[in-house]
Amino acid sequence: MHRRYLSSSSSSSILSHFNSLNKFQSSPTHHLCHSRTLTTVDTTTTRDHSYADIPKPPKSKSERKPYPTPMKILVQRAKQEKEARKAQPCKLLEDPPENGLLVPELVSVAHQVYQARESILLGLSKLVNVIPVLRCRHCFEVHIGQVGHEIRTCSGPKSGLRNATHVWRKGMVHDVIYFPKCFHLYDRVGKPRVIHNESRSFKQLPAIVELCIQAGLNLENYPTKRRTRPVYSIEGRIVDFEDTQVDSSLDCSLNSELQPKGDLGNCDLNIREVSSMVLDSWFEMISGAKKMMERYKVHTCGYCPEVQVGPKGHKVRMCKASKHQSRNGMHAWQEATVFDLVGPNYVWHVADVAGEVPLCNDLKRYYGKAPAVVEMCVQAGARVPDEYRSMMRLDVVPPCRDELDLVT
């Protein structure tokens, strides 16, 4: 309202109201001290960036895996690629590895990941003889320790009759760490997809090894085509107008290094040193696989553990997970994570290694978890990694069994 339409009384009341507001803004705690005290906490300083909680299992078997990249971003990328193909139907692909060439800086990473994997398997074969590994007879549960735990999480056949308790037997190395297999692609660009009728004519190998091969590793039993010139894309289809040759110049200098890392083959090493080397190889393998997956595409089924390394997922109708009837047995492919290539197989952390008291089911919320490789190395004497301290809940002191009723 214009000033000339304001009366003297109304103008004085408005001015007094503004003055009270300014006074409140100048000293806000003066007016709130009688009700409550306001405290500001700097979350940037108190937040633990290395905090990692125990991964939560899916609520039901029909639940799909979460997308690493949000669906909104995937739709935007698809629209941009479609518009780019309309604007330029025929173009020379320049960015590797989409053009069929290798990424030079990832060739050495592929060799390091392969060596780290071999070192892990060699080290675990020695640790299994010292650290006991237990495996449930009816499900995939694994326990690292002298005595199997009593936590009732068995989901195998007739688990209801056993009250979901596990029946333990001796485990092996493949129970500690699991590498899912995929089809080997001779030409990842020219023929990136395996159809259903060709499933028996293609070799299978661990997916992380296939990733290393596509990134520059040469293995005798798994030949692959190396290009020296990029390919063309015509309306989304790959066309190669040049003669393809085997490009081994980037890999010849590294073929002599395909041996397990460190001195794990030395019999003089004690268990503590072996466990430390295995733990270092574990982190090297995980970090190297993440670097390669940033450039080389890896797909996994959204409902089952199937993995395929390459630009596209295969068309073999072998999915038996939830809703596979509606897909005619086809997999629901999506972007994979590093733990789809390497099964971490989380196990319960045992704080008292020498003790013979099993983990109690009533106290399971106080126990932590860790990958079976990390748990075995820690029990063998390796230092606890900072990345898994919070997941293993080392700062939590579980109560005794007779004190359970006293804990809120």
UniProtKB/TrEMBL annotation:
Molecular function per GO: RNA binding
Q: Which InterPro entries match?
A: APO_dom
Where does the sequence pass through the membrane?
A: none
> Residues annotated as region Disordered?
44-67
The record ties this protein, via Pfam families, to: APO_RNA-bind
All copies of the APO domain together span 135-221, 300-386
Q: Do you know which PANTHER family this protein is assigned to?
A: EUKARYOTIC TRANSLATION INITIATION FACTOR SUI1
Q: What is this protein called?
A: APO domain-containing protein
